[in-house]
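Re: beginner question about structure tokens

> Can someone show what the tokenized structure looks like for a real chain? I only ever see the sequence side.

Sure, here's an example I had lying around. Input first:
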Amino acid sequence: MKIYLKFLSILLLLLICTSNGNAQVILGPLEENQSLISFKDEQHKNLQICPTQVISLPFFDDFANNPNAYHPNCAKWQDNHAFINDNMAFAPPSIGTATLDGLDPGGRPYDKTADPNGAFPADTLTSQLIDLSGKTAASNIILSYFYQAQGFADRPESGDSLFLEFLDIDTVWQKIKAYDGISNAVSQLDTPRFAQDFVILDDSRYFHANFQFRFRNLAAICGNNDHWHLDHVYMDENRTDTTAPVYYSDICYSTVPMQAFKKYSAIPWRHFDSSLWNDTLRMRTFNHSSQSGTLDRTYTIEDTANLGNLLMNVATPSFNYLPSPNIRDSYDTILSGSFGAFAPTGPTQLRSRYTIDNPTAFQGNPLFVNSDTAYRYTTLDNYFAYDDGTPEMRAFLQGTGTQLAVEFETTVDDTLRGIYFHLPHYINRNAEDDFINVKVWVDNLQNEVFSRDILRLRYVGGFGGMYYVQLADFAAVPTPVGLSANTTFYIGWQQASTVPVPVGVDRSIDRDDVTFVKVGGNAWQNTDINCAVMIRPVLSPDENPLLIPVENIQQTKNISLNIFPNPSDAVFNLDCENCLGENYSIKVHNSLGQQVLQKEFTNQLDLGTFPNGLYFISLYDNQKAVVSQRILKK
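And the corresponding structure tokens:
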């Protein structure tokens, strides 16, 4: 019932938000986080990757500018279950949060076969050993932290709990706090804010040399479900704040910098034009202090290929903070004419940076300096992108024949060579089994110039998890699309099989203005899903463009399937190389993507009773398609 209610709520949300009645693009939770997939970890439950250390108070982590990438900082934490990120939480106290979900440290489900309606032990965020020997209740030790359910990701329901536990002197974990998931009575339109809580250590059982604390969650462990976010975990002695809100001397950035370009997170470097610069500055900071004071801030953009070459250097007016723990400063301005000369000669990255300069005394504690600087990177390579590379959810098209298109625009003459798709895993379904038709339109959405029909996407690992589809015909002959300068073009797909194929979406970026959907014979219309769909066009004058490095999630043997005669009026002979000693099966789909036959592999396939036409035969090894071929019955 839990998963049913979750999808029903998402569907109702879309119906409420969509003025045109469009509910053909549906959002759902992810099963895997492709941004984390780099290895298969079978021993996830008690995995510890950080060497054990004994540390002293104070303990503080705001997860800003984390030195261990996606995994927790080993100087403070022992395990690597939590996902450290800048974009899955909603309105965090500072940049960087630790996210607990239903995935293992490698970004895969803990148990793909687990009941999706259940709540099972999932992630753990465990501190290093903290020496509290000799401390007493009079030491006034307090642990404070911020926590949030859902954010931009999946909502934990009632029963999907978050726990705080302490390790006592007898090495027994004691439950200190418990937070339940969100009641079904709470509207899906309401995104919970961060809440702050604290614990006073006044029990002698915890004053020992190997004290630890940890956060744990219960979740549906069959996928990327039931998200909790943590921030500003702070433990120290001689603290006098015994009720929330908890104060400490920190003013920090709560959002990463603006994108360097108005629309794009990445562009082909040849397409740079000064008109692309984002001339709007929006800066957000957050006061955690009970004191007043002023600070100065700077916004810069520099080319990482030529560090020190500042393309933007703007000092913002000083801001005077009043004594309050939760005052957000929102500074907005226009930067027209402020950008320096820039003429890229090859791929590079732009680094945008917010910096707090010359902080007053109340901001001078070195414990809190990490969030005084915030970064964002913009890629100049050979592709356009709107997304930031981290999928929070997935989108799929309802109904065979439904189409989705995303708009882009060239600034120079170029050639469209292919399209990246982010294929997220799909609960209880191998999305590689299902089909889409890849589409390209030029000038307008009535001018379709390319269609690659009955195509399967593939799972890939590594950062970003983008699968490349070359523009080619059924015989794998490249059919690139030439594009003139200042041309609007669209890339997208049409749902070709009865089971929808998911595509990842970035919920932290809203690009509904360039995303369109078409149902049957109806007119194209904007979607209203408030996301950036994770598909990217690759443009290059090179016939073999350099692609984003990826790795296959599952490796297969060098298997080839030879089919003859082809075409045939009835019987096709199947010759499979390197198939000896294995149990293989075959599936046959018609040109609409409908499965018409499934059987054990044999050396002959008889389609004598089937209608004439185009079919696709796929060879399966343990339910995974390893090779596919097109055949024609005449």
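Each token stands for a local structural state, so reading them left to right follows the chain. Residues 36-245 form a domain with the Jelly Rolls fold (CATH 2.60.120.260).
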